[in-house]
Amino acid sequence: MTSPSRVLTSIGAYVVLALAAVVTLGPFLLSVLTAFKSPGQFASDGSLTAPAPFLLDNFVTLLTGPAEFGNAIFVTVAVTAVIVVFQLGFSVLAAYAFARIDFAGRRVLFWAYLSGLMVPNIVLVIPLYLMMVELGLRNTFWGLVLPFMFGSPYAIFLLREYFRGIPTDLVDAARIDGAGHWRILGSIIVPLSKPILATLTLITIVSQWNSFLWPLVITTGPDWRVITVATASLQSQYNGNWTLVMAATTLALVPLVVLFLIFQKQVVRSITISGFK
């Protein structure tokens, strides 16, 4: 029979978790509810009541009106896709070299590169901006993506540790059969690393999709405006029309939720495997 103290402990844990869920999910629910209201409904009914009726006017205005939000979505998708492909590609190559190739100064070079994690991103904004200006890439697509294409210290660290956990016998057997580094990487390392690669893909997509400071600094005007900058500009462009701003926030949120639902099994599996190791 369960003791009263254990029951109270369980109830307290569920109460804390429920409160945490409300605090975490509340802003998202508020955003969705407000997005389907007209400004009149929002002013009269408040923000926590359900729309009556549900209206799509805000989304139509965003995608077809002068806000040019559709272009911002397209630019954000393109920027995110290019950065994810190149960043993960270079991170895989670097992590494999640090994990499986023995060369002089490997550990020193790895920890020197990893020290970049300790440098705040805000410190790099001005040097990167000056570099892009000198290259003539200000307010261009490549100015948005170039600083983030060539690997990530965080991704390289995680991949290196994961690659080192793959049994050495598999790699040695492949070498005996005549496989080189490219064959080992493509036929053994990458297929066995799908969970951690899926997790890093999701993390990279979320970080780049939500990127705000660098796109704000490197671009001017609506041509290369990303979704975060476009959402922020709505507050002044439409004089605080919060239903429109919340519609933009909802549109920005939906792809991330869909991606998480697709990759959640791989994310959980990567965490489970890493914890087991």
Automatic annotation (TrEMBL):
Subcellular location: Cell membrane
Major localization class: membrane
Keyword Magnesium attached: no
Membrane topology: Multi-pass membrane protein
Gene Ontology, cellular component aspect: plasma membrane
InterPro entries linked: MetI-like (IPR000515), MetI-like_sf (IPR035906)
CDD domains: TM_PBP2 (cd06261)
Domain of life: Bacteria
Keyword terms: Cell membrane, Membrane, Transmembrane, Transmembrane helix, Transport
Domain ABC transmembrane type-1 residues, every copy: 73-263
Matching Pfam families: BPD_transp_1
Matches recorded under Gene3D superfamilies: MetI-like
Spans through the membrane: 12-36, 72-96, 108-129, 141-163, 184-206, 242-263
Entry-linked SUPFAM superfamilies: MetI-like
Secretion signal, residue range per the UniProt entry: none
GO biological process, alphabetically ordered: transmembrane transport
Record-stated family: Belongs to the binding-protein-dependent transport system permease family.
Official protein name in the record: Carbohydrate ABC transporter permease
Lineage, opening ranks: Bacteria, Bacillati, Actinomycetota, Actinomycetes, Micrococcales
